[in-house]
Amino acid sequence: MIILPLTLGAMLLALVLRFGATGLTRLAASPLRGGPVVLVACLAQVAGVLTQQHRLPLQVATCLLLGLFCWLNRRRAGVLLASAGIGLNMLVMLVNGGTMPMNPEALATLNGTTAPSGSLLLVSKNRVLDDSAARLPWLGDRLLLPGPAARLAAWSIGDVLLLAGVATFMWTTMKGSNDDQGYLWNEAASC
Amino acid sequence: MNRNRVSRTTTQVVVAIGILMTMLLAGGAPGDFANRVEPAPTTAK
User: Fold this and answer.
1) Full domain range(s) for residue A146
2) Any domain includes A18
3) Domain count of the fold of chain A
């Protein structure tokens, strides 16, 4: 769970250092549409993760709601990229019964756990599946960061696109049309 | 007045970040709880 706020926080920190308070003001002034829609989508996802029941219908509901959210924001920078990432993640989860396949080797590297293929993981969207048992296994959670960071999380190709889309959205929004005014060091110099 | 504006902007930033984080979570973003996992005793329906 820690990796998500950590990644977003690191992005925000880097962009605040780059664009200063002006960047935050621009972010505040350009809200995404459909906040409640994405909240309900997240609740459906969390319900499936916590109960481990009705994963497929809940996944379909999440998919439809996220599709609506992306459509509402389709003209915003980065949303197309994020939509592609969401689409890949939703696709692989839909064809695997509403669960995200995780490569057993990735799980072993992640936390030292070995689990037989087919095992669900508690409080997680993942199911351990050998490549031969998973559908579209190359879209599942199997990418790891190098070195000790490998223990943070297993990533899918969709995750990478999704994060790249969010980074593009934040960069473009906080940069604005004239970012010369927004450098933190310019603001500091003017004080 | 200025304090109100700062407060409103702060709220809007928090909401914007919240929406992005929610989108990441709903979209299957990495790591959710996967660093503290155990095999579940039952299979999914």
Assistant:
1) 75-175
2) no
3) 1
Q: What was the pLDDT predicted at A159?
A: 92
Residues in chain A closer than 8 A to B4 (CB atoms): none
The per-residue pLDDT for A119 is 84
pTM across the whole model: 0.86
DSSP secondary structure string, A121-184?
BTTSSEEE--TTTSSSGGGSB-EE-SGGGGGT-EE-HHHHHHHHHHHHHHHHHHH-S-GGGG-H
List, for residues A79-137, the tens digit of each pLDDT value: 999 999 999 999 999 999 889 999 888 888 887 888 888 888 877 888 889 999 999 99
Provide the token pair at A85: 């990432």
Query: What ipTM does this complex have?
Result: 0.86
On whether residue A169 sits in a domain, the answer given is yes
A65/B17 CB distance under 8 A:
no
**What amino acid occupies position A95?**
V
For B3-13, write each residue's pLDDT tens digit.
Answer: 788 888 899 99
Domain annotation covers residue A190: no
- Domain annotation covers residue A26: no
Interface of B with A in 1-45 (CB under 8 A): 8-10, 12-13, 15-40, 42-45
CB contact under 8 A, A66 and B23: yes
Q: How far is A186 from A41, CA to CA, in rounded Å?
A: 41
Which residue in chain A is spatially nearest to B16 when comparing CA positions? A31
Q: Which residues of chain A neighbour B13 with C-beta distances below 8 Å?
A: 24, 27-28
